């Protein structure tokens, strides 16, 4: 079964939107496979967004993602990667359709509430990164679920 990595960004956590975001994925019918509250260190944030390293907004993006705790989640289901991207909406919340998370809940690209993997390969990679050997990736003694 396909799995994706969904992360509620610091603005979403600070604004109290954790329940709202989780509820949308639950109601759609996807299955939660792992969850933790996590303060992402700078090096892991840079690794996560490494494809955007050359962009002018990259330093601001890393400051944003490391500015407070995020909620890291694994979700699985048929076609979950593409479906999650639809539920989340366009990168710029002003262009995101009403009914999507960003379309309903945000106005700024640099404060767009949630991340979703853009391919099944990246879903696996991003969840794998999170379940690595780092001590902070363990919650209550249980390792964050690794696919397969
Ligand atoms: P993610 O799910 O977070 O990966 O967003 P995305 O796939 O919709 O967009 P992309 O991967 O291209 O960019 C990653 C993140 O960088 C975005 O979600 C934004 O938070 C941020 N970002 C992208 N473009 C801009 C920009 O032009 N300005 C600023 N300030 N941030 C940007
Ligand atoms: Mg992306």
From TrEMBL:
<feature type="binding site">
    <location>
        <position position="102"/>
    </location>
    <ligand>
        <name>ATP</name>
    </ligand>
</feature>
<protein>
    <recommendedName>
        <fullName>Nucleoside diphosphate kinase</fullName>
        <ecNumber>2.7.4.6</ecNumber>
    </recommendedName>
</protein>
<keyword id="KW-0808">Transferase</keyword>
<feature type="active site" description="Pros-phosphohistidine intermediate">
    <location>
        <position position="115"/>
    </location>
</feature>
<comment type="similarity">
    <text>Belongs to the NDK family.</text>
</comment>
<dbReference type="GO" id="GO:0006241">
    <property type="term" value="P:CTP biosynthetic process"/>
</dbReference>
<feature type="binding site">
    <location>
        <position position="91"/>
    </location>
    <ligand>
        <name>ATP</name>
    </ligand>
</feature>
<feature type="binding site">
    <location>
        <position position="85"/>
    </location>
    <ligand>
        <name>ATP</name>
    </ligand>
</feature>
<dbReference type="GO" id="GO:0004550">
    <property type="term" value="F:nucleoside diphosphate kinase activity"/>
</dbReference>
<dbReference type="GO" id="GO:0006228">
    <property type="term" value="P:UTP biosynthetic process"/>
</dbReference>
<feature type="domain" description="Nucleoside diphosphate kinase-like">
    <location>
        <begin position="1"/>
        <end position="138"/>
    </location>
</feature>
<keyword id="KW-0067">ATP-binding</keyword>
<comment type="function">
    <text>Major role in the synthesis of nucleoside triphosphates other than ATP. The ATP gamma phosphate is transferred to the NDP beta phosphate via a ping-pong mechanism, using a phosphorylated active-site intermediate.</text>
</comment>
<keyword id="KW-0547">Nucleotide-binding</keyword>
<keyword id="KW-0418">Kinase</keyword>
<feature type="binding site">
    <location>
        <position position="9"/>
    </location>
    <ligand>
        <name>ATP</name>
    </ligand>
</feature>
<dbReference type="GO" id="GO:0006183">
    <property type="term" value="P:GTP biosynthetic process"/>
</dbReference>
<feature type="binding site">
    <location>
        <position position="112"/>
    </location>
    <ligand>
        <name>ATP</name>
    </ligand>
</feature>
<feature type="binding site">
    <location>
        <position position="57"/>
    </location>
    <ligand>
        <name>ATP</name>
    </ligand>
</feature>
<dbReference type="GO" id="GO:0042542">
    <property type="term" value="P:response to hydrogen peroxide"/>
</dbReference>
<dbReference type="GO" id="GO:0005524">
    <property type="term" value="F:ATP binding"/>
</dbReference>
């Amino acid at each position: 079964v396909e799995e994706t990595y969904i992360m509620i960004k610091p603005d979403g956590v600070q604004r109290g939107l954790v329940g709202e975001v989780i509820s949308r994925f639950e109601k759609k019918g996807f299955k939660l496979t792992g969850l933790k509250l996590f303060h992402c260190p700078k090096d892991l944030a840079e690794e996560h967004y490494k494809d955007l390293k050359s962009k002018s907004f990259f330093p601001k993006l890393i400051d944003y993602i490391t500015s407070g705790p995020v909620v890291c989640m694994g979700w699985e289901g048929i076609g979950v990667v593409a479906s999650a991207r639809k539920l989340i909406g366009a990168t710029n919340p002003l262009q995101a359709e009403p009914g999507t998370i960003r379309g309903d809940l945000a106005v700024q690209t640099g404060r767009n509430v949630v991340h979703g993997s853009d391919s099944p390969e990246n879903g696996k990679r991003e969840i794998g990164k999170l379940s690595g050997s780092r001590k902070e990736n363990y919650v209550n003694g249980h390792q964050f679920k690794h696919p397969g």
